[in-house]
Write a structure and sequence with these properties.
The chain is an alpha+beta fold. The strands form 9 sheets. Strands 8, 9, 10, 11, 12, 13 and 16 form a 7-stranded mixed sheet that branches. Strands 2-1-24-25 form a 4-stranded parallel sheet, covered by helices on one side. Strand 31 (785-791) and strand 32 form a beta hairpin. It is globular, with a radius of gyration of 33 Å. Bound molecules: ligand ANZ and zinc ion (ZN). Ligand ANZ binds at residues 227, 246-249, 252, 328-329, 332-333, 335, 337-338, 340, 343-344, 372, 417.
């Protein structure tokens, strides 16, 4: 076999140049007949270059896009940069280079690297969120939400990262720590901007028509945390004050023996009786220092103090003591709860410690458990006991009747409660889009007029974080005129959470150069929703929730005609090194550049895909990549070989099976098995020989996975440029089915059954099929299998002792 040797590096560059010169990857958006929007989550332009994780994610996503293009779709595959925000700003602080400069430099480097990957990104569609021509429209979207009452400013206890010196949204706090830097988050009472994502809680729970991972939808559902229950109104004894308690299980109301109010509750001041005042105040102070995580930890002993007040049970007039305890949060329900020690574990612990009565009021059918913690409260079976006129009713029926009774007697009402909080979007940081609001001494809070957008971020700002927004010190930015009265006014100095920038970027790609609007409805309505969205699972309750919300809101405001932004969603797995997460601090990162240099971009891309199923990730090892490099060499030798097929019927079958397998595998992101099938095919042809037509077909099949290599193969075979537009090969279904044979199964030398399997079925498959035969199974169960025999096409045998 004569070979010229495959020169990956040269080939990569040769084709990248040609692709660019011929505009192969530029998309005609007017051609919408078979449109396909293939999107991967855009990266932060950080100072570290593209890492293995980027390659893993972007390479496979691009292979999928290439595959769809070969299937005849007009594929839009854009790329951009999520360039505002803490990483860019922190990097700038570290290096003392202005964020704008470092960001733009990093973008330039990353574009070069992304181009070297050989992706089909249409760079004419690029968006960069930190450029005024983009954030002008982020501000515009904020204004539209503001005008509809979906954006508001409110003083509230918010999450504060003492290290990043900024507030964080709830979604950006992971186990009580800052999701950027890991510092423990504290609370601060601040006046902040929120978006009313809560108004969309119910809509966000509807996933109709979406092809998303079940786990992601479940995570969002849990985060949104819908609870169906009611508010019960309790009169405070001797005061003209009513307190509501939210409960999901009002059926336990006759078992209430105390009530608890959150230490932050605004009415607590009025409620504490003089004798208890000192203790309550001390307790409130201590609670302030605790994180929510500490307060809610199940294994921590519950603490509380008496307020001296009593609440009156609207059902039976019973007076129960009102305590304050930090396990009741102000941010959920009404901030007051009824204590039912017989049926709630937490209340039981509390009651035992502080000697409240424990009174049973429901009985579960299972007879064993008494607390709701052990049962599904919405589907519980059991009856109500010792509860006046409701005694004897089933729990679920009683619950309904109790709510009806309260509504009639005006002492309570049905209520649906969500755990989801409104989205806090103000940040006391520099590198973000300024919030387009002006404060006037006379007119108060005024929206910046749209014609003034973008409200530009000034360059000459000392951006070191101090806890106050850096823009506050910039007089020229801060001082302005009121758009309404022309009087003295100041600008909002907080910037927007970068998740706001990334919540709509997919709408901008198809219209990225539009100067008169954020996007063109006609264009977006034809190109969106995104057909395929690929990115990390860590975004489940942040970006993916925010983007759905913004998209739905823009849909409701009439700016776009579709409700959901991302039709199909796929998450990539993680690449590890010797089982551990790659990280710079551990010093176990793998540099893509080194391997790309050595083996070429396709081998690197293909090895990452070969490591395991895309959604599961895999463990990096250097030996594995040499295996893929050898495969590419063998493929190359085969393309340049001249050994006619010995068995052309067998070749044809193998090829058609390959077409089917590779296509079906890429469709479901099983790139690893697609590569394996190609390897098998090459091995087969090395023994059997191959004809030119099959060589061309095989080059097309590997094209999505190894684009430069395939282009080169196709070219030396005389194929017409580009292999990307050669179409996806079609298989003949009849040629893909295996020949089946019936073979006998012996147990200890006697035929006990017969199975139908593929003529070439491997041993494991044959043995498994034999064991499934019921008669064979019967004889196998008589002892222990000590030997398994398989003669393909002839016989399967077992020796049992
Ligand atoms: C009485 C009761 C009896 C409750 C019982 C449960 C079991 P989910 O399902 O998570 O929504 N609760 C309400 N507001 C609270 C707050 N601000 N802080 C802490 N706990 C609060 O939980 C609803 C239940 O959580 C409510 O139902 C209330 O306790 C508690 F056998 O009321 B329940
Ligand atoms: Zn932080």
């Amino acid at each position: 076999m004569e070979t010229k040797g495959y020169k990956a590096h040269e080939v990569d560059q040769k084709w990248q140049k040609k692709w660019e010169k011929t505009g192969l990857h530029s998309v005609d958006l007017k051609n919408t007949k078979k449109k396909y929007y293939n999107l991967v989550m855009f990266p932060y332009p950080s100072g570290d270059k593209l890492h293995v994780g980027h390659w893993y994610n972007f390479g496979a996503a691009d292979s999928f896009g290439r595959f769809m293009r070969m299937k005849g779709f007009n594929v839009l595959e854009p790329m951009g940069f999520d360039s505002f925000g803490l990483p860019a700003e922190n990097y700038a602080i570290k290096t003392k280079i202005h964020p704008k400069k470092s960001t733009e430099n990093n973008i330039e480097v990353m574009i070069r690297q992304l181009k070297a990957m050989g992706t089909i990104y249409d760079w004419d569609k690029m968006v960069v969120t930190s450029r005024p021509e983009y954030y002008k429209w982020t501000q515009w979207i904020f204004l539209q939400l503001y005008k509809k009452g979906l954006a508001y400013k409110r003083k509230a206890p918010v999450n504060w990262c003492p290290s990043c010196q900024t507030v964080l949204a709830n979604e950006q706090v992971q186990d009580g720590t800052c999701d950027r830097c890991g510092t423990e988050v504290t609370k601060k009472n601040l006046n902040q901007w929120f978006l009313k994502i809560r108004d969309y809680a119910e809509k966000l729970l509807d996933y109709k028509g979406l092809d998303w991972p079940k786990k992601t939808m479940l995570m969002q559902q849990n985060w949104i945390g819908k609870s169906i229950g009611c508010d019960v109104s309790w009169k405070v004894k001797g005061m003209d004050l009513v307190l509501d308690t939210f409960t999901t299980t009002v059926d336990t109301i006759y078992g209430v023996t105390f009530a608890v109010i959150s230490p932050e509750h605004p009415d607590l001041d009025k409620l504490m009786k003089p004798y208890f005042k000192k203790d309550v105040e001390k307790y409130v102070e201590a609670a302030k220092k605790k994180t929510d995580i500490e307060r809610l930890a199940e294994d921590k002993e519950k603490t509380g103090v008496n307020t001296g007040s009593f609440l009156v049970n609207p059902f039976n007039g019973q007076e129960v003591p009102l305590w304050t305890a930090d396990y009741v949060l102000m941010t959920y329900g009404t901030g007051v709860v009824m204590g039912v020690p017989a049926h709630d574990q937490r209340d039981m612990d509390f009651a035992k410690k502080y000697k409240f009565d424990i009174v049973q009021s429901v009985q579960f059918n299972n007879g064993e458990t008494f607390v709701y913690d052990d049962v599904d409260k919405y589907n519980v079976k059991g009856k109500i006991i010792d509860s006046g006129e409701f005694t004897g009713l089933s729990i679920l029926d009683g619950r309904k009747k109790m709510i009806a009774w309260m509504e009639k007697n005006k002492c309570g009402k049905a209520k649906i409660q969500y755990k989801l909080r409104d989205w806090l979007i103000s940040r006391q940081r520099y590198w973000g889009a300024p919030i387009p609001i002006v404060y006037c001494e006379k007119c108060g809070e005024v929206a910046a007029p749209e014609k003034d957008l973008p409200i530009e971020l000034p360059d000459d700002v000392d951006f070191k974080p101090t806890g106050e927004s850096p823009l506050a010190k910039h007089d020229k930015f801060r001082n302005t005129k009121c758009p309404k009265c022309g009087g003295k006014a100041t600008r909002e100095v907080d910037t927007m959470d970068t998740f706001m920038c990334s919540s709509w970027y997919y709408l901008r790609y198809p219209c990225n150069t539009l100067k008169t609007a954020a996007f063109d409805k006609r264009v977006d309505d034809t190109w969106l929703p995104v057909d395929m969205y690929i990115g990390g699972p860590e975004h489940a309750c942040m970006h993916l929730l925010y983007a759905r919300f913004i998209n739905m809101a823009l849909n409701d405001l009439g700016y776009i005609g579709f409700k959901e932004p991302f039709k199909r969603l796929v998450h990539q797995g993680m690449i590890t090194k010797d089982g551990a997460k790659m990280s710079k601090s551990k010093g176990n990162t793998v540099s893509p550049d080194e391997f790309v240099e050595k083996y070429g971009s396709d081998v690197f891309r293909m090895y990452l895909m070969f490591m395991g199923p895309f959604t599961e990730g895999g463990d990096w090892n250097d030996k594995g990549i040499t295996g893929v490099a050898r495969f590419v060499d063998r493929f190359w030798n085969l393309i340049n070989s001249n050994v006619p097929a010995k068995d052309s019927a067998a070749l044809k079958k193998a090829l058609h099976k390959l077409i089917k397998k590779v296509g079906e595998d890429i469709e479901v992101f099983h790139f690893n098995t697609a590569v394996a099938a190609l390897m098998e095919f090459v091995n087969f042809c090395m023994k059997n020989g191959i004809d030119k037509e099959s060589k061309m077909c095989a080059s097309r099949l590997i094209a999505p996975l190894a684009p430069h290599f395939a282009e080169e193969c196709y070219d030396v075979l005389g194929g017409k440029y580009s292999v990307l537009d050669s179409g996806w090969p079609v298989y003949d279904a009849a040629l893909t089915v295996d020949d089946v044979v019936k073979i006998g199964v012996q147990v200890n030398g006697k035929i006990r059954g017969e199975v139908q399997i593929a003529k070439a079925a491997p041993q494991t498959e044959a043995i498994a099929a034999a064991k499934e035969n019921s008669n064979v199974a019967k004889f196998l169960s008589e002892g222990k299998i000590v030997k398994e025999i398989y003669v393909p096409g002839r016989i399967i045998g077992f020796v049992v002792k």
